[in-house]
From TrEMBL:
SUPFAM superfamilies: NAD(P)-binding Rossmann-fold domains. The keyword Heme does not apply. One of its GO terms (molecular function) is phosphoglycerate dehydrogenase activity. Residues 21-95 form the D-isomer specific 2-hydroxyacid dehydrogenase NAD-binding domain. It comes from Eleusine coracana subsp. coracana. Keywords: Oxidoreductase. This is D-isomer specific 2-hydroxyacid dehydrogenase NAD-binding domain-containing protein. InterPro entries: D-isomer_DH_CS, D-isomer_DH_NAD-bd, NAD(P)-bd_dom_sf. Gene3D superfamilies: NAD(P)-binding Rossmann-like Domain.
Amino acid sequence: MDTAVIQKDLGVPVGDTIFGKTVGIVDHKFVSSMKKGSYLVNIARGRLLDYQAVFDHLQSGHLGGLGIDVAWMEPFDPEDPILKFPNVIITPHVAGVTEYSYRTMAKV
């Protein structure tokens, strides 16, 4: 890690910007560099993942699974082919919706 920092080679992926929003940071190159069988989890923004890259790597077996609580398109299409994979799970994007978080927001 020290060498990577000194050489400024942190492997930070760069995406494209469309209408001021970054998309496709996790692309074919990024997913290909992941260890075979890795699980990809996205709880940030759906458009950070390149849909086709994720789909292709799930289909080939390179990705061990996908866990998301955000989608490429909202609302999420319940017929999306990516949901047909048995190793894909999608949950509602509500992790921050708690009594504690609402009380804290109210104080701020």
